[in-house]
Amino acid sequence: MYTNSTYMLSMESLAIAPSGVYPAFHFGTLTYCFIVFCNVTVLSTIALDRKLHKPMFILLFNMPINDLIGATAFIPQLLVSILAQNRSISYPACYLQALLVHLYGAGSLTILTSMAYDRYIAICCPLRYNSIMSSSNLMKIIIFMWLLVITLIVVLLALVTRFKICRTTIVDIYCNNPSLVRLICDDTRINNYYGLLITAVL
């Protein structure tokens, strides 16, 4: 008996000419290495420089981590597809990519919101800034931020696993929740409503 995990999915073609495969692969590899280098540099700078151990920079520390999640979720799989000229992906791998891509997107919004809150306190309540943005409160903000993102996205993708897929073609160049929902022939209104709820919350 077939289950979702046994299916191989076909993603949208990249339409790269044979002569352009290696240039595209090299460009993508260099781009990914550059992204990793820049984000690791930012992480190292904030971690090693005590002058940057302030609320704003500690919140900023989460952004490179989030960027690495997003880049790693998308680029390596794309590079393999370019080199192999094969756009097939297993359902579990597609599901994992969708999970990481949505974590990256939601994480970016919540991190920027936290940084905006920090600036709001600094501008509007400068005399109370140190007490409001204390180390303990800052840690609570960071933990709440990541727990909120992880909970919302895990529930979003968990709703997809309730159904058995009836199609095997992904209409996007990467896996995401809408593309996974389109593989389902059953009623997915609850998924759509929850997706709208997440959009409103974030």
UniProtKB/TrEMBL annotation:
It is found in: Membrane. The keyword Protein biosynthesis does not apply. PROSITE patterns: G_PROTEIN_RECEP_F1_1, G_PROTEIN_RECEP_F1_2. It is a multi-pass membrane protein. This is Olfactory receptor 4D1-like. The keyword Cytoplasm does not apply. It comes from Salmo salar. Residues 38-202 form the G-protein coupled receptors family 1 profile domain. The chain crosses the membrane at residues 20-44, 56-75, 95-117, 138-160. Its main location: membrane. InterPro entries: GPCR1_Superfamily_Member, GPCR_Rhodpsn, GPCR_Rhodpsn_7TM, Olfact_rcpt. Coiled coil: none annotated. Keywords: Membrane, Transducer, Transmembrane, Transmembrane helix.
